Amino acid sequence: MGESCPDRKEASVGILDNFEKGLERVVNGAFAKTFKSGLQPLEVTAALRRELDTKAAVVARDRILVPNRFVVRLAPADYERMSSLGEPLIDEFTRLVTQHAAAQRYSFAGGIDIRLHRDDTLSDGVCRIDSESVKGAVAWTPVLEIGGTRHTITRSRTVLGRGSEADVPVDDAGASRKHVEVLWDGSRAEVRDLGSTNGTKLDGQPLTHARLEPDSVIEIGRTRIRFRVLAQAAAPGASGSGQGGGRR
């Protein structure tokens, strides 16, 4: 049986702030406009956390296994509103599930897979969560978020800048044609300024070359670029990069 969504009062204010800030950052305020009424994403987040706690199983002295595949069943109207936000919403659910698991020292059998499902038998404001543990490889997916647009890093070297030759365009008069590069080796990232005219900041500090941690913010002119690494289920048949690196 899946877990029903708990009352929203059960969710902590800290989780609420974390979720809203993260989602608003991704979708540029669409969160507040879309979810003024009806089932709130926070309630789904609380239900996912509760599902982890309920299904946690001690399999070894130092290992507590929890589900890593989740199906969030929603009433038609709630499904339409939540699915309209697409991958950014799923990414925020994934990030907070990962954070809760880390705080509780839970382990996953594989990458986290969260899906929304329309269920015509449910009433508005009600959701159910089905979950299971599925063994599989983890795909560490690095992304750059700029103004609500997500750019997946697919190369070992990705150049950002105002010029047409940049891999990721930055529409900012303060950006050089080739401003910075992001280096990714499969588990760790670095950022390097390419001799830009106006310089680059990382989390508010000037940089020439630095390690890039998840949720760090690169500043080019007035543009803020957030770097994130998502631990997701690898595609069938993919070997993945394992859970090495401990980035999350």
Strand content: 25-35%
Proportion in helices: 10-25%
Instruction: Output the helix-strand order.
Output: EHHHEEEHHEEEEEEEEEEEEEE
Describe the sheet with the most strands: 6 strands, antiparallel
Classify the secondary structure makeup into a structural class: alpha+beta
Q: What is the CA–CA distance across the termini?
A: 29 Å
The count of strands amounts to: 18
Strand order of the largest sheet: 9-8-18-17-14-15
Calculate Rg over CA atoms: 19 Å
Uncertain segments: 7-13, 239-248
Mean of pLDDT: 82
Given the C-alpha coordinates, what overall shape results?
Answer: globular
Q: How many individual helices?
A: 5
What can you see in these coordinates?
The structure is a single chain. With 248 residues, the protein is of the alpha+beta class. It has five helices and 18 strands. Helix 1 runs antiparallel to helix 5.
The gist of it:
This protein has helices spanning 13-27, 30-34, 41-55, 76-83, 87-104; strands at 3-4, 57-60, 63-66, 69-74, 106-108, 113-118, 127-132, 138-146, 149-152, 157-161, 168-169, 180-184, 189-193, 200-202, 205-207, 209-212, 217-220, 223-233.
Using brief descriptors, characterize the structure shown.
five-stranded mixed sheet, 18 strands, alpha+beta, 248 residues
Walk me through the topology.
Blueprint: E1 3-4, H1 13-27, H2 30-34, H3 41-55, E2 57-60, E3 63-66, E4 69-74, H4 76-83, H5 87-104, E5 106-108, E6 113-118, E7 127-132, E8 138-146, E9 149-152, E10 157-161, E11 168-169, E12 180-184, E13 189-193, E14 200-202, E15 205-207, E16 209-212, E17 217-220, E18 223-233
